Every structure is written in structure tokens, then in C-alpha cells.
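User: I'm preparing a small set of examples for a lab meeting where we compare how different chains pack in three dimensions. I only have the primary sequence for this one, and I'd like the structure in C-alpha cell form so I can line it up with the others. Please keep the answer compact; I'll paste it straight into my notes.
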Amino acid sequence: MGARSGPCQLPTARLLCPFLRAPHQVNVFRRYLAYFAREKRRLLIGFLCLVPSAFIDLQLPWVVRGALDKLGTEPVESFLLPTLALYLGLAALKGVFRFGMRWFLVTSSRQVEANLRNDLFAHLESLSFPYFNRTKTGDLISRATQDVEAVRMFLGPGSMYIGDALLRIPMALILLSQVQPAMLVAIGISLAVLSVSVRKLTPKLHAVSEAQQKAVGAMSDRANEVFGGVRVVKSFAREEAAERSFDEVSARYRSVSLDAISARALSNVFFSGAKDVTLLILFATGGVFYYLGKATVGDLYLFADYTVRLYWPVFVVGWMVGMYPRARAAAQRLNEVFDTKPEIVDSPRASAPAEIRGAIEAKNLTFSYAPDRPPVLKNLSFKIAPGETVALVGRTGSGKSTLAMLLGRFFPVPPGMLFVDGADVNDLAIRSLRGAIGYVPQDHFLFSDTIAENIAFSENGPADAQRVARAAADACIEDDVSVFPKRFETEIGERGVTLSGGQRQRVSIARALYSDPRILVLDDCLSAVDSSTEERLLGQLQDAARGRTTLLIAHRLSTVKHAHRILLLEDGGVVEEGSHGELLARKGRYAQLWQRQQLEERLAHDGEPLQAETAVARNGSADP
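Assistant: Understood. Below is the C-alpha cell output for the 624-residue chain.
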């Protein structure tokens, strides 16, 4: 049987075999080709500029060849100036088309990159809390930067380079075949060796480059971690350990950087040496033909010039083939994000009521974060009237914060178990529901912006100074702000690093009050303030909470004693319910918890003898 034939048997096409052999693999790029389709006008102009640019560039050696062949047969003054004028004219025209090609093609690819990154960011924002719980932030940042860039380079500039190479190489070979076909053998051997070498060396170059990028990322992560936790590092006197840890990642970066330098230096030496060897073979071969009278000096120059000009296109084709696995992997990683659907979306019957009064009801609410995990809430049932302040207390893990997040539908809510104003929360438009809730989570995240912009975060546009001041007063942060030189225009740094823990909590409370919500959810948001500030803040919040439903989650019972009702949760269910006085009178679990906290507080502040406090706890009285 004869040897197999097909498109991949051709030396040049063999470089493109990853695409020719498995065209179905290009499907991973289909989503991103659609982005380029939006730029089809600019892409068309760019590729139209590519054709004359390549053609004119290949004509320049012929101008020089003609001048060289006239040497010795015609006076130099008869052809020198016309040759220079023609060469400069063609070079200028080539420059115009070359600029147009790069301007339109690269600009369109940058626009695609911006659109793709914006869509990726918007899609990530649409995803639900569970997705971010199981996905690392660093991985998402890597996909939004390095993966987007890899796809852009492959489909944008990569297509330009491939198009230029596929035009330039056949065009050059056809033109050279008209001069001395036998001399093409030297160039053919050289290009074949170069194409194979590029294909072998490029994966190594990409591997060391990727290792270098990962090392940079690791070094940045370590530095960010140490600088972000510098207070902890210093408080435990762990500076030397932090330095050793950073030295390790820095040494790793130095090592992979040296590997990358060696690989690139080796490849540059090889490519430069291969080109020089090719020119040597070409001149040796051409010298024989010149001696036999079958080639001129102009012919030798023409072949030498074309050899140099063809090296870059062949190198680019090999580079693109080596880039293909990385770009395909990047496209697949991006597809994984885009193909992830939000777990929490508006149902077809979702309504957006004009006003939410704030009635909340749970009916046998049972919830688990995963099918293989035990339920956090078990048959939880309660009712909260509009405008009522209800506190949730209980030990860590009893389900208090989970209930708060389910109320805002941050996690999937089982149907028919949680209601707002008599409507299943699953039947309310998410934007309408969350717009009616002012949620202050335990993690008081502040943005690197002014205090005013952080307080007014719930709305677009500039902050309303009067509303900001009123919300700050209700959150008892106004006096703290007044001592800052720029007051509410003070920049608070990354994550509010320039503020104390209690100040960050109160700014978060002010942010929730600024939106004037019908339902206010305070999730253990007073843990970092002192007792006197807590009393003052609770008094302000009582006034601010009038007319709105307030769900107060706290660990310290002193925070919730003024609530209309208190629900004590254990193992995901309500075990006691009533006002502070009623629950103390029952002398049940709430009363025991109250006595324990009072005892701990007196020991911390008054230093009373342990024996006396133990006796108080034993006789079951709250009074010593």
C-alpha cells in the first residue's frame, strides 16, 4: 500500500494539523468567534489591508535585484534615483497598509477583550453565593485576566499572523520559482527544519512562561497575604517567619525566571543560527549557479532577502500551533464559567410588589447547604408582624445567619416554607425583595472609597449628603467622622483598614439605613463596639427601626433585651420564644444563658470573687 496522503502530509500544513485533524475542537472557541463577528467591519478592513501589505513587501527585493543586475552594464546615475524613489514609494505604501492592518485588527481584538471581560464580570455577578463558596477568588481573577488574554491573542493577533503567513509563504515561493527553481531546495530544507524546531521548542517556551506567571502570582499572593495581615504578623512577632516564607516564593520565582531566560536565549540562538546556516547554504548553492551562469548577483540577493523575510512567518505559524493548547484550555476554563447557570433566578411568575410591608413567616422551614450535609434549619416556624423587632439568639451553628441569608434568597429557599407579606419569597422578584431589605452581615466589608460613598453604596449616582449624615447619626458614627479632616470624604483604604472594627460595623449599619429598607437585618453587627456605644447605638436604632421590621441576630443578650420578641434557636429550631422579661421569668435555657453572660461580664469588669459568682449561678438568681 502507498503512503497515506492528505492535507497534513504537506510540510507547511502539518503545522496546522491540530486544527485540520480535529475541527470539532474549534467548537470551544465558538462563543468567542461570535464576539469577533461583532467587529466584522473592522476585521474586514484589516484583512483587506493585509493582502497589499504582504504583496508590496515581497516586491521590494525585486526592486533591489533589478538595480544590482544593472551594475556594470548601465551607468549608475541612470537607475539609482529612480530605483530609490520606487523603493521608498513602495515602502511608504506598504507602511500605510501595514498600519491599517494592525490598527483595525488589533483594535478589534482589544474591543473583543473588553466586551468579553465585561460579560464575564457581569455573569459572575449573576451567580449565586454557593458558586463563590466553592470557587477560589484567585482562580476567578486568573480566568478574567490570563485566560481572556490567551483567547484574545490566539483569535485576534494570532489570526492576523496566520493570515499574513498563509499569504506570504506561498506568494514568495511562487515568485522565487520563476527565477531559479533549483535554489528553492535550500530554502525548503531550511523552512522545514525551522517549522519542526519551532513546534518542538514552543511548548517548552510556553511551559516556562506559564511557570513564571504562576510564580509571580504566588509571590503576589504571599505579599498580599502578609501585608493584609500585617497586624497579626507583628502582634505575634512573626516577621522573620513571614520573611522566610516570602524568600521561598521569591526563590521559586528567581529559579523559574532563570529557566525562562535560558529557554528563550537557547531558542534565539537556535533560530538566529539556523537562519545564518541557511544563508550560508544558499550562498554556496547560489555561487555554483552563478559560476555556471544560471544565476545573477541580483538572484542571490533576492533569495537571501526572501529567506530572511520568510523566517518570521514560519516562526509565527509554529508559535501559534504551540499556543493552541493553551488557548483551548483557556477557552474551556472560560466556558466553564459562562456555562454555569445562576442557582437563584426569578421564576416566571415572579412579581415585584409596589410596596413591601415587612411581614415575615416561616412554615416548617428546613434547609441544608448540600444534600450530603445535615440540615441547618429543621422545621423552623414563626411569624413576624410588620414593624416588629424580633431577635434571634443561640449558640454558634444554630442557624441564625442562615435564616438571614435565606430571607434575601442568597441561597436556594425550599418552596412554600418562607414568606414575605404572605408571598413565597421564591415568587418575589429578587431585585424587589433585596431592595426592601437592609442587610448588615457579620463580615463588614467596606470598599476602598470615601465614607460617604460606602454609606450610599446602595444607590447609583453621587451620595446625598443629608441622607448620609442622617444614616451616620442613626448608626452613631457621626461623631467619629467629625474628627477626620475630610469628614465623610475621608478615604478609608482597602477594606476600611483605616477604621477600627467598631467603626467599620457602624459604617455598615449606616449603609443599610441609607437605603431606607422596610426590613432591617442586623447579623451580630455590634460585636466590636463597647458596652456604652452599644447602649447608645441600640437607642438610636430603636428610633430608626420604627415602622420597619427588624431582625436582630446577636450573641450578646444585652443587645436584644429591648426586642419585642426573642427566638432562641437550637439545632435549627425554636426552643423558646417570648420577650426578655418573659424568658427570664421562665428560668429556662435563655435565663441560664443570660446568667452566664452576666457572670462573665462582671468577672471581666468588676473582678468579683469567683466563689460569690458561683453561688449566684447555683441559686439561679440574676441578682447577687
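A couple of notes for your slides: The chain has a mean pLDDT of 78. The first helix runs from residue 11 to 14.

User: Perfect, thanks.
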